[in-house]
């Protein structure tokens, strides 16, 4: 066995999911009949729970086009597409590990990256995007808005997100569960640290 | 997380597959050989993406099967250092956590890579498990638990391929080990943020 090209292109989660779906993988009872191995099904099950299952090719092309202004590295774009962040959790310039850590990203496949680009050479050491504050500054919010617009959440998730945002603004709301309280405190404390 | 790799392999097509069209037979044989196996410094083979070239078809003397040289692309799972992945908790002991992705289970978060300060206490239900707690503040109401309920986001620190041991060790051998960290903003169980 000879490895001719160890890295012939990076794939986003969406692309792998699409490939498995094209082979016949699905959630229902036709599992036994489809020509998909059980180990491939495990990958399919994992990917279906990620934001990649809600993306389309057009969304990804659109995102690739629009994110050119931010001059992100290929690995950073890949990370964003795979995770599809919806909120800016923290930018922590003081710690050794720079980077924006996004939560709940919806990413699109990296079809554009498959043309022989070497993602490995752009390895992001720390976090989603390195030195984000230095490079992007105010543009971080814009980038986040771009992600939110290009990868919209399905209607069911939208209402729950709206509910969450509303809860965050109220303090000491007894109806919030413990998690929401912790998030609120976390945000306030992070605000002080910044 | 996933890459494509171009691989060339010389494979012997067993006569039992001769009834299938050539491409299907070769794909089946490749899947038998490579699927769910780890190639050192390449990663875990997920799936055969496509077949680029088939050459050969020689039959060696004394052999009943033909041999082909096949060039094909394979989907490989290999996270890069710094990638952020979400996984489920598989087990947690005093050395740290172990996470699983369903198709890949050898993800370890050593105790010193958990957010500081953290502490653990023994789990009442499982004998050898512990529950890790992140004490964000010194007050009691700011403790964050790592329970097994939701997904845990971690960042990849390193991907190692320990060499195959000569003798069989007690633990099952893991050909690919991912070490991660939870010690940063936004990492950890999803409900923390």
From TrEMBL, chain A:
- Entry's Gene Ontology BP terms: transcription initiation at RNA polymerase III promoter
Which residues does the annotated region (Disordered) include?
A: 155-194
Single GO term (MF):
nucleotide binding
Does the record bear DNA-binding in its keywords?
no
Entry superkingdom: Eukaryota
Q: Which SUPFAM superfamilies match?
A: HRDC-like
Which keywords does this Swiss-Prot/TrEMBL entry list?
DNA-directed RNA polymerase, Nucleus, Transcription
Here the segments flagged for biased composition (Acidic residues) are 172-194
Q: Which Pfam family, just one, is annotated for this protein?
A: RNA_pol_Rpb4
- What Gene3D superfamilies would the database entry show? 1.20.1250.40
Cellular compartment(s): Nucleus
Q: What is its main location?
A: nucleus
Q: Which GO terms describe its cellular component?
A: RNA polymerase III complex
**Where is the RNA polymerase Rpb4/RPC9 core domain positioned along the sequence?**
1-154
Q: Is Mitochondrion a UniProt keyword of this protein?
A: no
Q: Which PANTHER family match?
A: CALCITONIN GENE-RELATED PEPTIDE-RECEPTOR COMPONENT PROTEIN (PTHR15561), DNA-DIRECTED RNA POLYMERASE III SUBUNIT RPC9 (PTHR15561:SF0)
Hey, which family's this protein in?
Belongs to the eukaryotic RPC9 RNA polymerase subunit family.
Q: State the name under which the record lists this protein.
A: DNA-directed RNA polymerase III subunit RPC9
Q: What species is given as this protein's source?
A: Hevea brasiliensis
From TrEMBL, chain B:
Q: Which SUPFAM superfamilies match?
A: N-terminal, heterodimerisation domain of RBP7 (RpoE), Nucleic acid-binding proteins
Pfam families reported in the protein's UniProt record = RNA_pol_Rbc25, SHS2_Rpb7-N
What residue stretches are annotated with the RNA polymerase Rpb7-like N-terminal domain? 8-64
Give UniProt keywords alphabetically: DNA-directed RNA polymerase, Nucleus, Transcription
User: Which InterPro entries does the protein's record reference?
Assistant: NA-bd_OB-fold, RNA_pol_III_Rbc25, RNA_pol_Rpb7-like_N_sf, Rpb7-like, Rpb7-like_N
Keyword Nucleus applies = yes
Q: Is the Transcription keyword given for this protein?
A: yes
Q: What does this protein do?
A: DNA-dependent RNA polymerase which catalyzes the transcription of DNA into RNA using the four ribonucleoside triphosphates as substrates.
Q: Which family does it belong to?
A: Belongs to the eukaryotic RPB7/RPC8 RNA polymerase subunit family.
Task: Write down what this protein is called.
Answer: DNA-directed RNA polymerase subunit
Q: Which organism is it from?
A: Hevea brasiliensis (Para rubber tree)
Q: What is the lineage of its organism?
A: Eukaryota, Viridiplantae, Streptophyta, Embryophyta, Tracheophyta
């Amino acid at each position: 066995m000879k490895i001719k090209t160890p890295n012939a292109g990076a794939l986003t989660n969406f692309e792998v999911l699409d490939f498995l779906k094209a082979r016949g993988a699905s959630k229902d009872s036709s599992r036994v009949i489809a020509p998909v191995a059980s180990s491939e099904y495990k990958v399919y099950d994992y990917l279906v729970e990620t934001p990649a299952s809600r993306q389309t090719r057009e969304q990804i092309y659109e995102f690739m086009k629009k994110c050119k202004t931010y001059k992100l590295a290929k690995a950073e774009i890949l990370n964003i597409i795979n995770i599809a962040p919806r909120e800016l959790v923290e930018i922590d310039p003081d710690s050794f590990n720079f980077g924006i850590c996004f939560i709940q990203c919806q990413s699109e496949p990296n079809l554009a990256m498959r043309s022989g680009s070497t993602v490995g050479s752009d390895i992001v050491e720390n976090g989603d995007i390195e030195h984000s504050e230095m490079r992007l500054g105010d543009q971080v919010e814009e980038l986040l808005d771009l992600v939110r617009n290009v990868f919209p959440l399905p209607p069911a998730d939208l209402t729950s997100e709206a509910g969450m945002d509303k809860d965050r603004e109220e303090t000491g709301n007894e109806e919030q569960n413990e998690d929401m309280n912790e998030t609120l405190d976390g945000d306030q404390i992070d605000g002080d640290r910044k | 997380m996933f890459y494509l790799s171009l691989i060339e392999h010389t494979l012997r097509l067993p006569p039992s597959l001769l009834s299938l069209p050539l491409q299907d037979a070769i794909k089946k044989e490749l899947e038998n050989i490579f699927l769910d196996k780890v190639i050192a410094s390449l990663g875990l083979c997920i799936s055969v993406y496509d077949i680029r070239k088939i050459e050969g078809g020689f039959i060696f003397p004394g052999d009943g099967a033909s041999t082909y040289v096949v060039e094909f692309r394979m989907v490989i799972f290999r996270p890069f250092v710094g990638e952020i992945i979400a996984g489920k908790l598989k087990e947690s002991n005093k050395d740290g956590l172990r996470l699983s992705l369903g198709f890949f289970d050898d993800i370890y978060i050593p105790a010193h890579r958990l957010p500081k300060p953290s502490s653990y206490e023994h789990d009442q239900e499982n004998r050898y498990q512990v529950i890790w707690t992140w004490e964000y503040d010194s007050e009691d109401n700011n403790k964050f638990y790592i329970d097994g309920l939701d997904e845990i986001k971690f960042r990849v620190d390193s991907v190692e391929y320990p060499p195959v041991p000569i003798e069989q060790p007690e633990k099952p051998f893991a050909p690919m080990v991912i070490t991660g960290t939870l010690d940063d903003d936004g990492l950890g169980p999803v409900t923390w943020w």
